[in-house]
Amino acid sequence: MGFLDSFQGNIQKIGTNVSTAKFDSQILETDNKIKELLISIGRTYLEAHREDCEQEYKEAICSIKKLEEERETLERNKLAAQGLRKCEYCHQIITLDSAFCNKCGSKLEQIVLSSAGGKFCPSCGASLEEGDVFCTSCGAKVN
To answer: How far apart are CA 119 and CA 83, in angstroms?
Structure first.
């Protein structure tokens, strides 16, 4: 009967593992909901207090502003590398050399390209200078 007892013991362990796995799944789901709410609170606070936050949040908010500006520049460079740009007024994506937006009709400022005639790194979107073999921002080899 030793084999049968051992078999029953293994089945009980499997049953215990299945029931604890359900708890693990529920705990993970609850943790994710908490994380989503914390992110929501942070976004709400940032939107309301971007310019007038408490001192303890000033450094983090300044870092967020810098990262947002960096992201904007990267998006602009990515579009420019594709021969495109975004209308400053309605955010429609249009060709880089457009003088007017084809969606809202706004007159657009001329974009000044880099000295390399508008060449950008295919890896990171950074502006390249004439004759660059490697990107000075990310180190990628460029053609």
So the answer is: 10
